[in-house]
Amino acid sequence: MPRLTPTTALGGTAPRIDEIGGLRITEIADPSLAALAMRAKKNAAFTKAAKAAFGANLPAPNTAAMTDRHAVIWMGPDQYLVEANSADASLAGTLADNFGSAASITDASDAWVRFDLTGSDNIAMLERLSAADSRSMTAGTATRTPIHHMACLILCREAGASFSIYGPRSSASSLHHALITAAASL
After folding, report:
1. Which residues in the chain are classed under CATH 3.30.1360.120?
2. Where are the beta strands (DSSP E) in the chain?
3. In the CATH hierarchy, which top-level class contains the domain 17-30+111-184?
4. CA torsion sign, 91 to 92 to 97 to 100?
5. pLDDT of residue 55
6. 1, 52, 110, 176: least buried by Cβ within 10 Å?
7. Does residue 36 surpass a pLDDT of 90?
């Protein structure tokens, strides 16, 4: 039987961490993600299930509802990306049990790559990468924006200090290269 070794989106056996100047770029190897979309004419059941599952209202456009268990990120009308704050291989299944026929749920863990940015220069770096107004983002703000010709998502975890960048996993190396190049240009 072949022996398989799990790899990160960048192809390593451990998440990659790059420190350039005052920035730290960390590959998050195992995000637990699920795409959550309300089904037609299921508004009441969807809202009730969301309140029970997340203990809070769903986020407004360009925001995320973050708790110690989940981050629910607005992705479009009646569409959300749910991030579990711990490696939870059953996230999509748990959501499917909670929402029943009120939602369509897809495991998205292997669809996205996540890089966390911390440090004193992250605003200047983000300004080189995107037209998003990262300087005015507060904790819980999320915006979809192109970065280096890739459809990405920027989530502010702490204003001016901590951001997560989500991009297509199939373009992980290209996104990482863009982040490293922008950091090195400061």
Report:
1. 17-30+111-184
2. 17-20, 23-28, 32-38, 64-66, 70-76, 79-84, 103-107, 112-119, 142-147, 150-158, 162-168
3. alpha beta
4. positive
5. 84
6. 1
7. yes
